[in-house]
Design brief:
The complex is a heterodimer. Chain A is of the alpha/beta class. In chain A, 36% of the residues lie in helices and 26% in strands. The longest helix of chain A is centred in the middle third of the chain and has 14 residues. The interface between A and B is medium-sized, with 35 and 30 residues.
């Protein structure tokens, strides 16, 4: 018995100006799994990811058509406030964007705006989320320092902790390790595997080995189209499409 | 070929050096002439008293009326312009982030307004005063100068907020912040140092301008005690004293210029200091 997918994208088309970025994309993203969107640069992976929490709204000349269901709700055609939808998804971007405030306040910010925190529990909640991102031990004695004082790898984990603090259901990650050193990357990757127990993880990457390490499900994209999707086993061991095979062999051009 | 490039490099270096030197020299000459003529005339009496009888014939008194008047006027106008300018600049860069064409149009008009001579703002303010039946007063001066410096304030802040990366906007919105929360809690903090610089730049313009207050704030020998009274300002006090045929009065104009220059020097130093001081939370991208 298959569980119902957490995210269902149906006939999604995105145009930016005259360019057709995503062409009839249909994908299913299962709950509590790591789904990797794989493909060469410029194939529309990031655009697909950003359309899921409607960051595409922020760009001029972007036209979106189709449906994206998160659970039962079509987020492209809904009366629900966009901030409520975005709160359900945490975003990790290619390079960390900590907020211009202290380490402590980076986490407290999310807790405060979601309005679900009392003053006395704030400290313990901040600690909780910093521990979740394996950052607590490194920053516990300098919580008042500005977030900009952290290394890039630490900043990315801070962003992860901050994303978790608003209690999302889904984690969207856009090549989150591309700016990081191997050790920090490893921490983030391992974290994703832990996180899938409670969250649905969607990871965009062009790094094949990373996909092999952590993917449960794979969506392979090329030139704005979904070429193939399935479990990691199916895609890596037994790809059906010629282009997928080429990409996996590294003979893609 | 390489010879030619070598000569070219030399020629351009000389040209650039000369232009820099000319500008630096001009600035130094202005400063030196003000200090040379003004410093001897500066006295405690001049800084601490309002003009008494015969001041404009070289007798006793000082320019306290203009110092206080200028302070009131520029602080009032800059505060008002900040209250209007900050929301505009944030709105342009956060809420209108998607409307590239609209933003560019707004920027274009603000730049036009920036370039309009301040005497035009003075005339405009005067027109409004006549319409409302207000006489020359501190209030009219403040309002006129506010209108005059708003484009400077907004564009200054806009240039700072423009450099806030889009990723930070996306990160903040992804957390479920509204756009206004993003504007006032994230963009404001990230741009804080630069916003202060924009604020103080506008302050410098407000305190240094003569033409916009000529018809609107008027001129008086006493210190204003209400918004509806006219007020003296440093630039106008320089203007009036400089046009005097009496040597002692002309020298005082230079002394007033020294005071104004010190004011502006102080503001510049303050802006340097504060923007360094509040830089620490800024994320370097």
């Amino acid at each position: 018995m298959e569980e119902k997918p957490k995210i269902r994208v149906r006939d999604l088309n995105i145009h930016i100006g005259k360019q057709h970025i995503l062409k009839n994309v249909n994908v299913d993203i299962p709950q509590n799994k790591v789904t990797v969107i794989l493909g060469p640069s410029g194939c529309g992976k990031t655009t697909l990811l950003k359309s899921m929490n409607r960051l595409t709204d922020l760009y001029p000349e972007v036209k979106v058509s189709g449906n994206i269901f998160i659970g039962e709700e079509d987020i492209l055609h809904t009366t629900t406030n966009i901030t409520e939808i975005r709160k359900r998804m945490g975003l990790l971007s290619q390079r960390p964007y900590p907020l211009p405030m202290s380490i402590f306040n980076n986490i407290a910010y999310g807790l405060r705006i979601s309005g679900r925190i009392q003053k006395k529990t704030l400290n313990t909640r901040v600690e909780h989320y910093l521990r979740q991102a394996n950052l607590w031990d490194e920053v516990c004695d300098r919580l008042k320092d500005p977030a900009s004082a952290l290394s890039i790898g630490q900043q990315q984990r801070l962003c992860l902790a901050r994303g978790l603090s608003v209690d999302p259901e889904i984690i969207l990650a856009d090549e989150p390790t591309s700016a990081l050193d191997p050790i920090s990357s490893d921490v983030i990757e391992k974290k994703f595997i832990d996180l899938k127990e409670n969250y649905t993880v969607v990871l965009v990457t062009h790094i094949l080995r990373q996909a092999r390490r952590i993917a449960d499900n794979v969506i392979f994209m090329y030139m704005g189209e979904v070429i193939e999707q399935g479990t990691a086993e199916e895609i890596f061991e037994n790809p059906k499409e010629e282009r997928t095979k080429q990409y996996l062999r590294g003979t893609f051009n | 070929m390489s010879d030619f490039r070598f000569i070219e490099e030399k020629i351009f270096r000389v040209i650039m050096f000369i232009s820099t030197a000319v500008i630096a020299l001009a600035l130094l000459l202005i400063l030196a002439s003000i200090l040379y003529k003004g410093l001897p005339a500066i006295s405690w009496e001049m800084l601490s008293q309002t003009p008494s009888g015969g001041f404009y014939f070289g007798k006793h008194g000082g320019i306290l009326n203009a110092i206080i008047g200028s302070a009131y006027l520029s602080i009032g106008a800059t505060a008002l312009a900040f209250c209007v300018g900050l929301p505009v600049a944030l709105y342009m860069n956060v809420h209108l982030a998607k409307r590239k064409k609209l933003i560019n149009m707004i920027r274009f008009f603000l730049d036009l307004l920036w370039g309009v001579p301040s005497i035009v703002y003075g005339a405009f303010g005067f027109g409004i005063m006549i319409f409302l039946g207000i006489r020359t007063s501190l209030l009219a001066g403040i309002v006129t100068v506010t209108i005059f410096i708003i484009p400077i304030m907004v564009r200054g802040m806009d240039e700072v907020l423009k450099t806030v990366p889009r990723g930070l906007l996306e990160a903040s919105l992804s957390l479920g912040s509204t756009k206004s929360e993003t504007a006032y809690r994230v963009f404001f903090k990230q741009g804080f140092a630069g916003l202060i610089t924009a604020f103080l730049l506008s302050f410098g313009r407000a305190i240094g301008d003569a033409a916009s207050v000529l018809f609107t704030a008027g001129y008086t020998d006493s210190i204003p005690t209400s918004l509806m009274q006219p007020t003296a300002t440093l630039p106008l006090s320089i203007f009036f004293q400089l046009s005097s045929p009496i040597e002692e009065v002309r020298v005082r104009a230079y002394a007033s210029a020294v005071v104004l220059t010190l004011f502006i020097l102080f503001i510049s130093l303050l802006s340097r200091y504060t923007s360094k001081r509040y830089q620490k939370n800024k994320i370097q991208f």
